[in-house]
């Protein structure tokens, strides 16, 4: 207990002396702090940008649905070099009929909903107003069970409209704004879509831009059979399957794999001519990518911190030289080596921590300004987020740089002989 009290008193005295030294040499302290500030600012800014980008992308991806598996000809994770891209290209597209066929297999007991989707780009008109290149998304009615569709007003199409391919549509907020004076005026109106008059039965709630454009603001959802009838095309789509909440997704994945192979009538020796893509595939791939980006950003930031560390070390060497007489007097009065060591180490760490705190505050300020610009002028859903982990990282790096850059001069000061130190000029 006495030792702990002694060390606490020692640390307190060291901090007081370090503070006095920093205050009495303002310009020198400022230059040392500046180097660390720039280094920490760059490191934390890179981490914040990367983490914010990763978070925003993952949130966009999660909007595709939870516990959802996509049956597609393409593999989201790339498939690896052992499966060339032209093999993916030669695979058959998913078909609407496969929805009904899949419901005949035991795996259907584990599924909450199965939908089929296909899309087509087209211009949409209402009287003299036109919105060009709108993505017309065809779905089966079960899609409303898979994704949480928020509507400004109206409704999604029902089973009767789905099966009979009725000319009805749920339009995106931006599309409604382009065709009508007010988006809410669109409900119950007919628009010209794919050369046919189509009744608007709903308007999607405004979602705002996101990094990978997963929203309905600039899209129109129609029954898939209506889209196939209007375009005269079939196939070219994919299945969207939602697994029951209380069922293990990995178990269903392999059950679904077997069912799809049976539907496609594949022999045991045949390769799969489809891909089962889980949302987790995307999030894992995104996570791995951003780990590499973070590592690269850390390397760049460490160069800046290294320069700042050399600045602190240089200032500490000067400080030791200037205070050699004082060190000699302290040691002659009984100050131990560890007291001198801690005294100068504390000074170096305080310098670095001040620089780190300023760097973190600069990052927080810049993030707030950029978020304000993104919200007010860009209308983007992207936001910069300075996390607690990054704040801790900044403080940790500041402390480590202070200890490393201050150790050599502090150790040299602690080893000075009292008589020689007092005689030095």
Can you describe this structure?
- The chain is of the alpha+beta class.
- The protein folds into 2 domains: 2-61 and 284-423, no CATH class; 92-273, no CATH class.
- Helix content is 56%, strand content 16%.
- The protein is built from 14 helices and 10 strands.
- It has helices at 2-24, 26-62, 85-89, 97-102, 143-146, 159-163, 173-179, 224-231, 249-263, 279-322, 324-332, 337-378, 388-414, 418-423, and strands at residues 68-72, 111-126, 129-139, 151-154, 168-171, 190-193, 196-204, 219-223, 238-243, 275-278.
- It has a 6-stranded mixed β-barrel.
- β6 (190-193) and β7 (196-204) form a beta hairpin.
- The longest helix is centred in the last third of the chain and has 44 residues, at 279-322.
- The radius of gyration is 33 Å and the shape is elongated.
- The two termini are 40 Å apart.
- The model has no long low-confidence stretch (mean pLDDT 81).
The count of DSSP E runs of length 2 or more, i.e. the number of strands, is 10
| Residues in helices, as a percent range | 55-70%
The span between the termini is 40 Å
Question: In which order are the strands of the major sheet placed?
Answer: 2-3-8-5-7-6
Radius of gyration: 33 Å
The average pLDDT is 81
How many helix segments?
Answer: 14
Order of helix and strand elements from N to C terminus: HHEHHEEHEHEHEEEHEHEHHHHH
- Given helix and strand content, the structural type is alpha+beta
Largest sheet, strands/sense/barrel: 6 strands, mixed, barrel
């Amino acid at each position: 207990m006495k030792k702990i009290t002694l060390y606490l008193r020692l640390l307190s005295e060291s901090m007081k002396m370090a503070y006095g030294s920093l205050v009495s040499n303002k310009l020198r302290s400022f230059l040392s702090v500046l180097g660390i500030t720039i280094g920490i600012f760059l490191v934390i800014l890179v981490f914040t940008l990367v983490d914010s980008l990763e978070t925003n992308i993952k949130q966009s991806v999660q909007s595709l649905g939870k516990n959802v598996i996509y049956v597609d000809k393409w593999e989201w994770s790339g498939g690896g070099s052992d499966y060339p891209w032209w093999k993916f290209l030669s695979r058959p597209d998913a078909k609407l009929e496969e929805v009904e066929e899949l419901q005949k297999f035991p795996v259907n007991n584990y599924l909450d909903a199965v939908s089929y989707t296909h899309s087509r780009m087209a211009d949409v008109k209402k009287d003299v107003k036109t919105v060009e290149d709108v993505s017309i998304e065809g779905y089966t009615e079960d899609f409303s069970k898979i994704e949480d569709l928020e509507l400004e007003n109206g409704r999604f199409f029902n089973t009767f409209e789905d099966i009979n391919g009725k000319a009805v549509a749920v339009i995106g907020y931006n599309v409604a704004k382009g065709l009508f004076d007010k988006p809410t005026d669109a409900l119950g109106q007919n628009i010209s879509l794919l050369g046919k008059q189509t009744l608007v039965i709903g308007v999607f709630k405004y979602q705002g831009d996101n990094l990978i454009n997963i929203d309905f603001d600039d899209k129109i959802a129609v029954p898939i059979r209506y889209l196939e009838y209007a375009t005269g095309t079939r196939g070219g789509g994919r299945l969207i399957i939602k697994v029951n909440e209380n069922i293990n997704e990995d178990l269903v994945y392999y059950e679904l794999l077997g069912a799809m192979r049976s539907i496609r009538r594949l022999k045991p020796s045949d390769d799969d001519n489809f891909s089962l893509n889980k949302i987790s595939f995307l999030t894992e791939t995104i996570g791995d990518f951003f780990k590499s980006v973070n590592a690269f950003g850390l390397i760049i930031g460490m160069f800046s911190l290294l320069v700042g560390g050399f600045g602190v070390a240089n200032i500490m060497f000067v400080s030791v030289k200037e205070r050699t007489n004082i060190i000699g007097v302290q040691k002659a009065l009984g100050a131990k080596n560890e007291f001198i060591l801690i005294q100068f180490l504390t000074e170096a760490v305080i310098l670095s921590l001040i620089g780190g705190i300023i760097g973190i505050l600069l990052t927080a300020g810049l993030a707030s300004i950029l978020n304000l610009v993104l919200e007010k002028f860009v209308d983007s859903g992207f936001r910069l987020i300075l996390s607690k982990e990054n704040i801790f990282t900044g403080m940790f790096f500041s402390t480590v740089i202070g200890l490393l850059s201050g150790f050599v001069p502090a150790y040299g000061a602690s080893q000075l002989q009292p008589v020689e130190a007092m005689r030095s000029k």
